[in-house]
Amino acid sequence: MSNYLLIGGLLILMGVAYQYGARRSRAVSKASAKHLHSLPSHYGAMVALACGIPAFGFLILWSFLQPIFVAWVVKSGAPPDIAALSGPDLNQLIGRVTSIASGYGVSDTASAFEREAAGRLSNFLNIVSLAKIVVAACLAVGGLVFALRRITPQLRARNEVEGVIRIVLILCSTVAILTTVGIVMSMFGETIRFFSFVNPIDFFFGLNWNPRFSSTGGGSGDFGLIPLLAGTIMITVIAMLVAVPVGLMIAIYLAEYAHPTVRTIAKPVIELLAGIPTIVFGFFALTAVGPFLSDFGALFGLQIRATSALTAGVVMGMMIIPFISSLSDDIITQVPGAMRDGSLALGSTRSETIKKVILPAALPGIVGAFLLAVSRAIGETMIVVMAAGNSPVLHANPFEAVATVTVSIVNQLTGDLDFASPQSLVGFALGLTLFVITLGLNVVALYIVRKYREQYE
Amino acid sequence: MSDITADGLVTGSPTRIADVVAKSLVKRRAKEKRFRMYGIAAVAIGIGFVLLMFGTILNKGLPAFWQSTFRLDVTFDAAALNLPTRPVREEGQSMAAFQQTLYEWQNQVTMANWNGLIQTSLQKYLPDAKPASRLRALVSSGERFRLRDMVLADPNLVGQTVTVDLLADANVDVWLKGNIDRDLADNQYLLSPDQRAWSDQLYEQGVIRMAFATSLFTNVDSRSSPASAGLLGAMIGSLFMMLIVILVAVPIGVLAAIYLEEFAPKNRLTDLIEVNINNLAAVPSIVFGLLGAAVFINWMKLPLSAPIVGGLVLTLMTLPTIIIATRAALKAVPPSIRQAALGLGASRSQSVFHHVLPLARPGILTATIIGVAQALGETAPLLLIGMSAFVANVATTPFEQSTALPVQIYLWQANEARNFFEARTSAAIILLLAMMMMLNAFALVLRRRFERRW
Amino acid sequence: MSVQTKPKVVAKDVNVYYGDKHALKNVSVNIPERAVTAFIGPSGCGKSTFLRCFNRMNDTVDGARVVGSIQIDDQDIYDPDLDPVQLRARVGMVFQKPNPFPKSIFENVAYGPRIHGLAHAKPDMEEIVVSSLRKAGLFEEVKDRLHESGTGLSGGQQQRLCIARAIAVSPEVILMDEPCSALDPIATARIEELIAELRENFTIVIVTHSMQQAARVSQRTAFFHLGILVEEGTTDDIFTNPQEKRTQDYITGRFG
User: Fold this and answer.
1) Domain count for chain A
2) Which chains are adjacent to chain B, needing at least 3 Cβ pairs under 8 Å?
């Protein structure tokens, strides 16, 4: 609670600092009869920043340091058996001591040491919380006074404030880079650890996937990637067979044939599919499409499992249709109208114009869209988890259940995470594989699409 | 002078050429027609998929918003309940010790014979039903806690008779709604033949009726009594995550977009950031789950299943979407606005923050809402940070265990009580879609309201 | 110069509407065979709109409506039974901006004959392509790179490629919509020479905003203003002895 008060107080102080800065700059300007370099509001902002930044910085730093100090206070003067504690036991002890120190107490009787440590801790915390307020206040007021005294008409307050803004902006845009670095580093680290258990060759070229859980004892199981990759590819191919013809024809029809009214209705309706969470597609696959395909197959004497590569693939294709149709639509409408006119003026029909002039001209862009769709299909998780049947066996029958890379990641990493066993770590190796594949596809696709756009700009 | 040569080469007079063209036209027109039909078929398939999906889910889910509910007059008989008295904090007792005795008292209250109350009041309607415990089993097992909570909230109820709405057992609901075939062999039902008959009788008497399932919104998930499983915990979890996304992803995303679009020098570094952001937007969402597991859980030791972790993972995932869309909104502001501001002596920052940003605001708002809606429906990464754990409490802070709406859907669809949960899951999906649509409609309204054309 | 023969194209009371806008009002004009007719006038006067009526390119614009009759060799081209595809094989068109397809030079020229099935064997197609390129005066410049992309040529060459593409299907009429407005003076001169040569075999209608160009290449000129055909006659008459005040003002540079 005192923290909120402190933050509130600091913010109020910053408001005051702003007012003072602005007023002071006006006074200085009047006294020296010189024009200010910047607006009074800039001087105000500069003073407010000088007041707030050091104090908040200190508070953030302190929030990291406090647990370390608390642990140190609790342990100091402890008997050797307690001083040797670490990990969860130590955390439990600190929790108990903190609880006693706060006056809440513990439900059973506290030991003598705990009571003694609690006394020390509560003294320490009293001093420290006071010290924290004093230091933060000193920093804030110090910053305020220092900045106020710097104000002269020549001071480039605006540039300084804008400098701070720019630093904040740059920090924000590096978050994206840090995310990528975080993804690569974390997955790389865990993957290396995984490879200390399992030979990379066995992983990349293994034909069996059977990761026994360590709790069942004995052996580490088989970690062959190939069955998962085969399942992934099978489902992706089925999805593309559904999505590409339908999506492309939708784009062509809406861009080249449809009446504007039809277009304004049909386009958003189809793109509605793109906004629906994949879990919903998964549920739809499980409860509607799977049983339907199974019954449909039975009509022809075909054995189709309700949860199979086919079910997952068809539904994933549905999910990707709007993705392909809207990307292709953008690309087709970017083909210059002069191309269309040129072809029509030579006496070709609309479909000839589309097939022989527009599609060839749009081909690179469409290939890019196609690759992006493939990458999306490969990385899709929920539909496959729910509808593909999870059977990591190498086979080529789309009517049977399969497992994919994403499904196995979910299977290996759901529940309690144990970062020391290959059964969990393999999730990261699979994740890295997935990341590399999709990244490759994305880089190529985005490059092609970008080049395509530039061509007609 | 006109001729078709032996090789089919057409030369000479235009009339001959016109004939050849006319002849070719029959085939070409047929082709044209066929191509057009393919297009219409594709659009029909696309729209058909949408209708089919929404139709299926609405058809399955809407009935689940009404649930078989008993309306019973329950007498809170003091003798039958025999409740212990509430402990008072003694002098010198530590707060923790008092809490402990309070817990023990609550446990005793919970163990009181609440089922007996339900059983007695049910017997009023079917006095001949034997054994009575089987009759009582028609009421969802978790509903006795509702009676307990009523007494805990108002101890004066003891000794009174109150009309209470209690949810029927899930199997009763399935039976009455006809979600299970009525002609199956006895061993295929979870209800005994007499229980099924009683259900029908009570339904005819009006003791059981279909009431709006408020429990769906006010209860948390429940394992022991499926009928009272609700979405409150999941919705609160999702709400916390959305708040985190809005508070973290939106400012960072918008500021990053402003920097990249308005300030960043054109060099290799900004090129790299740009390529990187475009790629991040296409990275599978599950990879962000792995990142969350490795960084937030394993390295930073944040708690498993907590909305704070989920929120941060979703933040990282939506960030590229928000950045890209915000940049598009900024790009749509014509350069003349910037030049005009700069020409009047405004600094770069002033031109951006005073002129460009206000004009781009509707676009940025739309971008933000779309990003948040996307995060709301995301499931896969949350599974990897433990949000699929069963949680029976409502989180009060983002650091407590919780699940999320889409994860709850995932858990429910896997529940073995298929007949009951298929509808319940569809209802949860309807709720999720309704929330997303509301967000999108909001975005649409904003865009309509502020849209400006140059 | 006067027209001795029967006109190739006869347009009568042509009106064009774009939605509610009445873009062309009651225009009647005769186009003589094997001659160049120029449409001049300030921008937005309807001259291009009128040109696009001759091969029904206005059909491709949403909301455009053409009323009136246009006959080519006594055949009404707005006859509902007539397929615009058939018409466009007879009436070629060259656009303001060169618009070669993103294909090779050869394929650009072969496109028309191929879709209409005018040649089946490879040597025949080559013959058509080469002779068309020759007629367009482009063959010597591109004979070594027939299979390179048509978009790699210079602007003037691209425009001549488009002309070659148009004449490859042996049309009777060629429509040119400001064919030189995107070109430099030297390229323009080459195209103008080419038009003079093509006049021997084709009926040409050219829209131009340059009065000098109209004077140089055409035998007949029609002056449009605000959707109305103001005056039409031999080029010499129009430029030396205009009947209408507006025509005179325009050609002397008072407006437009």
Assistant:
1) 2
2) A, C
What single letter denotes the amino acid at residue B48? Answer: G
Together in a domain, A109 and A222: no
What residue spans define the domains of chain C?
9-96+172-251
Instruction: Report pLDDT for B5.
Output: 47
Out of A103, A431, A445, closest to residue B290 by CB:
A431
User: Quick count: other Cβ atoms within 10 Å of Cβ B311?
Assistant: 24
Give the structural domain span for A117: 2-155
Q: Among A342, A348, A360, select the one facing C99 at the smallest CB separation.
A: A342
Instruction: Please check the confidence at residue A108 and state whether its pLDDT lies above 80.
Output: no
Give yes or no for a contact between B382 and B406, defined as CB atoms under 8 angstroms apart.
yes
Question: Which C positions 18-77 lie with beta carbon below 8 A of chain A?
Answer: 55, 57, 60, 62
Contact list in B for residue A186 (CB cut-off 8 A) is 290-291, 294-295, 299
At residue B15 the predicted structure's pLDDT band, cuts being 50, 70 and 90, is low
Pairwise CA distance, residues B213 & B69, whole Å: 9
Touching subunits for chain C (3+ Cβ pairs under 8 A): A, B
Q: What is the average pLDDT across A92-118?
A: 78
Assign domain B232-450 one CATH number from 3.90.1720.10, 3.20.20.70, 1.10.3720.10, 3.40.50.300: 1.10.3720.10
For C9-96+172-251, which CATH superfamily applies? P-loop containing nucleotide triphosphate hydrolases (3.40.50.300)
Closest CA to B208 of B178, B162, B167: B167
Task: Please indicate, yes or no, if residue A197 is contained in any of the structural domains.
Answer: no
Does residue A181 lie within any of the structural domains? no
Band of the pLDDT at B11, cuts 50, 70, 90?
low
Q: Residues A128, A268: one domain?
A: no
Smallest CA–CA distance from B264 into chain A, residue: A170
Do residue A336 and residue C87 have CB atoms under 8 angstroms apart? no
Helix pair B405-413, B357-377: axis angle to 10 deg: 20
Q: According to the model, what pLDDT value does residue A120 have?
A: 83
Q: Assess whether A265 and A413 both reside in one domain.
A: yes
Give the SS3 label for residue B163: strand
In this complex, the residue of B14, B24, B29 whose CB is nearest that of residue C116 is B24
Between chain A and chain C, the number of residue pairs with CB atoms below 8 A apart is 65
Contact A158 B348 (CB under 8 A): no
The reply to whether A141 and A273 lie within a common domain is: no
Structural tokens at position B354: 């005073």
Q: How many CB atoms lie within 10 A of CB A273?
A: 20
Contacts of B24 in chain C (CB under 8 A): 116-117
* Chain A: partners with 3+ C-beta pairs within 8 Å: B, C
Last residue of one domain, picked from the residues A140, A155, A170: A155
Token look-up 């597609």 returns A281
CA B390 from centroid of its chain's CA atoms: 16
Crossing angle of helices B357-377/B307-331, nearest 10°? 140
Mean pLDDT, to the nearest integer, of A243-268?
93
Half-sphere exposure of B115 (CA within 13 A, CB side): 12
